[in-house]
Amino acid sequence: MASPSQHVATSTPAKDMLWGGRFTGIPGMPSSSDSFPSTNMSVAGGLDSLMMTYNASLRFDRAFYAQDIRGSVAWARANHRTGILTLAEFEAIEKGFAQIQKEWETGSFVVKEEVDEDIHTANERRLGEIVGKDTAGKLHTGRSRNDQVATDMRLWLREQLEKIEHILEDLVRTLASRAEQEIEHVMPGYTHLQRAQPIRWSHWLLSYGFPFASDLQRLREVKKRVNRCPLGCGALAGNPFQVDRDAIAKELGFDGLMPNSLAAVADRDFVVETLQWASMLGLHLSRLAEDLIIYSSAEFGFVRLSDAYSTGSSLMPQKKNPDALELIRGKSGRLFGAMSGLMMSVKGIPSTYNKDLQESVEPMLDAVTTTSDSIQIATGVLSTLSVQSANMQKSLTPDMLATDISEYLVRKGVPFRETHHISGRVVSLAERENVPMDKLSFDQLSGVDQRFEPDVMTVFNYQKSAETRSAKGGTSRSAVREQIEGLKNSLNG
User: Fold this and answer.
1) End-to-end CA separation in angstroms for the chain
2) Out of 5, 35, 38, 313, which one is annotated catalytic?
3) Ramachandran category for residue 228: left, alpha or beta (phi over 0 → left; psi -120 to 50 → alpha)
4) pLDDT in tens, 130-185
5) Sign of CA dihedral 184, 185, 189, 195
6) For an engineered disulfide with 202, which of 179, 322, 401, 441 has Cβ 3.0 to 4.6 Å away?
7) Rounded CA gap, 135 and 127, in Å?
8) pTM given for the model
9) Neighbours of 316 (CB within 10 A)
10) Rounded alpha-carbon distances, angstroms, from residue 291 to 57, 126, 199, 212
11) Burial of 182 per CB tally in 10 Å (0-12, 13-18, 19+)
12) CA torsion sign, 352 to 359 to 243 to 21?
């Protein structure tokens, strides 16, 4: 581990830092080597070099460069309206920021590591180089990085959630489309990972379509709470120059204001809620991935994954691994971790802004990327896999129709609790005889219960079994088609 003398700075914070005035040193103060020779730290305001790195956030908050510029132009306009900036100064600032945005977009923006601790400082420092420090120095009047970063984050996250909304809609459409096209395929349905009853492949697809539709609905609700404007709240107490916060919010496309300045600068609920939402979506994606991993295995063989979403083994040439699905399953844990980690970071901080809140940025950035990528990979897997309907059919076994035997007798007027017992005896008989249930003779069945009639043999039909489940939500064609329409309608919001 490095000792203090190995990483401390001998220089004081640059005067161009937004907070540098208090810490730029006092003439006549003793140097660090006079008082603390082992540290090389300046009593007059020197900053440990590791602390500079520890404190800096430009390496990740540069993602907000466009939002920071957009917010700064809106802020400059507000300050022009209050008389802080002349028209010429505002126009120079607006033109300067247009140049800065192009520099970021083209990769020509030159970062000055000793000054540019965050995106706000970097943009304002560069603005001063373009329009002059006197004009640029007026920009920040009445604004704090506390309300500035919250504004940047909300603008950025709003844009990202809009993109995610569209790709999540694509996932839901893909599920609905496949369900509509492949409604004839019947496969085993499972409980406890044991074969249970025949269901339609389409019914299984829709069992994930509707949770994703709920995720879509929840996302639309989260967006509403993200899209509120904190700009104009200052460090914590509000703005003394009567800026028009409503006009600022309208210019930036916010639906409304954060109504309390103390809460506005402290609030990261919008990030926590986004991560909670992403975790729920990740849970659904993970379960979908798990099912498809199982169904694509040689032991099941219900689906074959496209080579575009599979990889091989470095040792075993025959292997085709479902890495895309395994990564979706694994990355869901990453989303859960981001959510729980951030909640632990913010749960104990006192009111208004604290530097702990900087820890909300990286989890947000990572979770957005992970969520977006995972949805798109899931959509790709689902849209390119091929259904192996013959293997689905081969996996259906007559014992899966034991409930249908019970229901046959119910239709004959026998109480269900009694029919359940009778059907169980039929299952037991088939096991003792070591034959499938549909190979039992009518005489054997009537030996179990004389209320069986010759038409009982028609029960042993998997398509017929699925068609009997015609109540809303069931696995019959009509019920599944109704669900497909419902899923499509959910896309309309």
Assistant:
1) 55
2) 313
3) beta
4) 999 999 999 999 999 999 999 999 999 999 999 999 999 999 999 999 999 999 99
5) positive
6) 179
7) 9
8) 0.91
9) 8
10) 40, 52, 15, 15
11) middle
12) positive
Place of tokens 């179990």: 448
Active site residue 313: yes
> Count of CB atoms within 10 A of residue 389's CB?
16
Q: Which residues in 451-488 are b (16+ Cβ under 10 Å) and which e?
A: ebeeebeebbebeebbbbbeeeebbbbebbeebbebbb
The 3-state DSSP class for residue 146 equals: helix
Amino acid making up residue 218: R
pLDDT tens digit sequence for 177-210: 999 999 999 999 999 999 999 999 999 999 999 9
CA atoms of 81 and 142, how far apart (whole Å):
13
Could you say which DSSP state residue 13 is in? P
Q: Say yes or no to pLDDT of 79 above 70.
A: yes
316: DSSP letter: -
The amino acid sitting at 116 is: D
Using DSSP bridges, classify how beta strands 194-200 and 186-191 pair: parallel, antiparallel or unpaired.
antiparallel
In Å, how far are 14, 156, 492 from 149, measured between CA atoms? 21, 10, 33
Question: Catalytic pick from 3, 192, 314, 386?
Answer: 192
At which residue do the structure tokens 């046959």 appear?
A: 408
